[in-house]
Amino acid sequence: MHILIVHDDPLFYRELLPLLSLCEASGAFARNLAAACDQIEAQPPQVIILGSASLQEQEVAKPFLGLLEAHMGNGLLVTTAASAESIRAGDERARLEATLTCASGLPRRSRPRYRIVGHLRIDSARQRAMIDGEWVRLPRIQFRILRYLVDHVGELVSYSALMKAGWGLDGETAEARELLKGHLRQIRRRLGPEFLPYLQIVRGEGYVLVNPLEEE
Fold first, then answer.
1. Which of 32, 43, 46, 107 is the most exposed place for a label (fewest CB within 10 A)?
2. What predicted TM-score, i.e. pTM, was given to this entire model?
């Protein structure tokens, strides 16, 4: 399934990238209706998520609707007034996730709220973690990085894969490594010295989250 997102804020697209991944869909972004027309002609989408502010572009609205009729057939058009901030806060995320899951024909996937590796415990609903102590609330990007590592415990996770998990961006290895350094340092600081045995660095390649209790 191919999804076109039309919105005046690129951050809105980045916030929806995890939902596209959930639905195993490819995605494209257009900042306005004119750019959306080009995208539709290049690769007709099955679903369009349209920011309601785009509808004010009246001079382009008619050609846009004509392309929908010509290229989309039974495709789905979803309008939303949501911003990147409201998606991030979860206000509109659940509705759009349900819509995309239904459109893709895939069963809705649920991620367990709690994941446990050794004494490390993470809470996906409240974006927090702890190791034998009090819960620590992590910033959104740092929690995404930690959750991805936990989801791939025991596996070598490349710098680029962690960059994709944290920011929804593709990047070169060197760029991703530098971007991750500071955030992983903050994760270690927030969780304390007990976290140090859990994270192994594979120089030049990435990181491995391990269960130190299994290595004793």
1. 107
2. 0.51
